């Protein structure tokens, strides 16, 4: 048998994308709750609050808050061994800066975890999944402010203490490296609650991104240390958004561009795992003269709070071309679909630079060797095996956990109510095969696999319902209409067999 006996087959979601009940049980608003829906090329916007007539898809989401008992029963029928979700920070600390937690919020997760454990489903908990308390964003400037470290650690310590006998697997910041492209953000804030001043230059944006990332990494490391003191059995991991970045050609400049791109996007896991900043990054900080607020105490915290495993999401791979060499005289470069536009000042600044600075929107190109989803996400199962090897070699075969993977697609409900989603099965089958090959042939140390959005939920990127990942269908459309009824798709039964056979039967 390829996979370990106790392999954590599961499913992944995030509180704000499925719970709803956005102000129930004294919950405060998070960034996600004040975000409007996007669609048809319109980006999601973070507003000042609740504006009548606008669609706030996360307010009700799929109403898991009120339906969790019947949903968890269905998850048990699917055969899940674990359930990855987040604890909504604003259920516990509605504004984020209070001293005392909200008991009603704590009770909700007690009940939810009890319900999971009743069926032998292990909760796997993300502490922060794109759901910062909105108050911390408006009052403090999000993770651009050092004070956020204390607020986060208080939240983490509170829930880790409360659930120390119910939850063993934790993750600190979901896709912490999703800030790596500081030129593209959810207007007017980023995931970390950063608001760039109007007219901010690329230098100022980049500096703020690194500063916020540093505060998050310190908060994460302190959490790991405190968590291990609360319960030495805790497994506390990082969570990285991994898109393998290939050189577009074997031209040496493209090869070098891919190496630098991997550093710029994935240095976060170096700090999480090794407990210090890599030299390629400190050199870069010096060269750029960022003068970041990094204290000696911070550096000790990073060393003392190394993670137990690396969790990561994998949906697609990228390809990179050294644009300095290939940009045409009118400044035109080819950009991967769905990847925004180049800020003119940045293009002018950096294109002639002698170093290989990575600017995602400028440098990523379409890979003609792979197909893409309707949202331009390039489908590449082998890229997952490549990523598993990259992490394993880099971190000496530390345990890895694939905590997100999946295929966002538009599903059609047939007249008889059935939903056939062979495209989803095909995507998942190919990725599971690639992951099993990595274990069997490459010696990768893999803890588990939790496909994303195994029950349909609100898309984080677009706020749509129609971009579905689920094996469980939820009757709700982009306008928020529908009965919210749950229905099994064809992929439900397929995944059930995969779990039962521990991945032998694909
Ligand atoms: C990841 C996020 C998830 C999830 C997923 C799919 O980046 O961690 O929250 O939503 O991507 O993205 P989307 O919902 O935009 O299709």
Automatic annotation (TrEMBL):
List all membrane-crossing ranges: none
| Gene3D superfamilies reported in the protein's UniProt record | Glycosidases
Citing just one GO molecular function, the answer is: 6-phospho-beta-glucosidase activity
The EC number(s) this enzyme carries = 3.2.1.86
Its GO CC terms are:
cytosol
User: What Pfam families does its record include?
Assistant: Glyco_hydro_1 (PF00232)
Group of enzyme by EC: hydrolase
Q: Could you tell me the keywords of this UniProt record?
A: Glycosidase, Hydrolase
Q: Where does the source fall among the domains of life?
A: Bacteria
Where's the active site on this chain?
404 (nucleophile)
Q: Which GO terms describe its biological process?
A: carbohydrate catabolic process
Question: Family assignment?
Answer: Belongs to the glycosyl hydrolase 1 family.
NCBIfam families listed in its UniProt record: PRK09589.1
Q: Extract the PANTHER family matched here.
A: ARYL-PHOSPHO-BETA-D-GLUCOSIDASE BGLA, GLYCOSYL HYDROLASE
Protein known as: 6-phospho-beta-glucosidase
Lineage per the UniProt record: Bacteria, Bacillati, Bacillota, Bacilli, Lactobacillales
């Amino acid at each position: 048998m390829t996979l370990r006996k106790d392999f954590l087959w599961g499913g992944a979601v995030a509180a704000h994308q499925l719970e709803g009940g956005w102000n129930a049980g004294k919950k405060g608003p998070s960034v996600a709750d004040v975000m409007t829906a996007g669609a048809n090329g319109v980006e999601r916007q973070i507003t000042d609050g609740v504006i009548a007539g606008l669609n706030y898809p996360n307010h009700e989401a799929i109403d898991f808050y009120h339906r969790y008992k019947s949903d968890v029963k269905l998850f048990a029928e699917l055969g899940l061994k674990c359930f990855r979700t987040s604890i909504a920070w604003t259920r516990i600390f509605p504004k984020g800066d209070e001293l005392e937690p909200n008991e009603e919020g704590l009770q909700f997760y007690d009940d939810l975890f009890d319900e999971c454990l009743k069926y032998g489903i292990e909760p796997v908990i993300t502490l922060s999944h794109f759901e910062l308390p909105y108050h911390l964003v408006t009052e403090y400037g999000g993770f651009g402010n050092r004070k956020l470290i204390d607020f986060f650690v208080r939240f983490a310590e509170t829930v880790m203490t409360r659930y120390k006998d119910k939850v063993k697997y934790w993750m600190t910041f979901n896709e912490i490296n999703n800030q790596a492209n500081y030129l593209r953000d959810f207007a007017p804030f980023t995931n970390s609650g950063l608001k760039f001043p109007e007219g901010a230059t690329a230098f100022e944006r980049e500096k703020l991104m690194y500063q916020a990332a540093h505060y998050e990494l310190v908060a994460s490391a302190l959490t790991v240390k405190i968590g291990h003191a609360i319960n030495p059995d805790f497994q506390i991991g990082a969570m990285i958004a991994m898109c393998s970045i290939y050189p577009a050609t074997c031209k040496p400049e493209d090869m070098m561009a891919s190496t630098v791109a991997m550093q710029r996007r994935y240095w976060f896991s170096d700090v999480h795992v090794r407990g210090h900043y890599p030299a390629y990054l400190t050199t870069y900080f010096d060269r750029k003269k960022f003068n970041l607020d990094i204290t000696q105490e911070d550096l000790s915290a990073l060393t003392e709070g190394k993670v137990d495993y690396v969790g990561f999401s994998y949906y697609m791979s990228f390809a990179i071309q050294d644009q300095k060499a290939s940009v045409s005289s009118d400044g035109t470069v080819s950009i991967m679909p769905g990847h925004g536009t180049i800020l003119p000042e940045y293009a002018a600044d950096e294109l002639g630079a002698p170093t290989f600075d990575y600017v995602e929107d400028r440098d990523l190109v379409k890979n003609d060797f792979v197909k893409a989803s309707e949202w331009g996400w390039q489908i590449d199962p082998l890229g997952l095996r490549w990523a598993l090897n990259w992490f394993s070699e880099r971190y000496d075969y530390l345990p890895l956990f694939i905590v997100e993977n999946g295929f966002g697609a538009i599903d059609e409900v047939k007249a008889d109510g059935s939903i056939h989603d062979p495209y989803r099965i095909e995507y998942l089958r190919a990725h599971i095969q690639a992951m099993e090959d990595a274990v069997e042939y490459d010696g990768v140390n893999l803890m588990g696999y939790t496909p994303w959005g195994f029950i349909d939920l609100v898309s984080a990127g677009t706020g749509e319902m129609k971009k579905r990942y689920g094996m469980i269908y939820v009757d709700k459309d982009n306008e928020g209409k529908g009965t919210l009824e749950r229905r099994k798709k064809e992929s439900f039964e397929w995944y059930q067999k995969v779990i039962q056979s521990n991945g032998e039967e694909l």
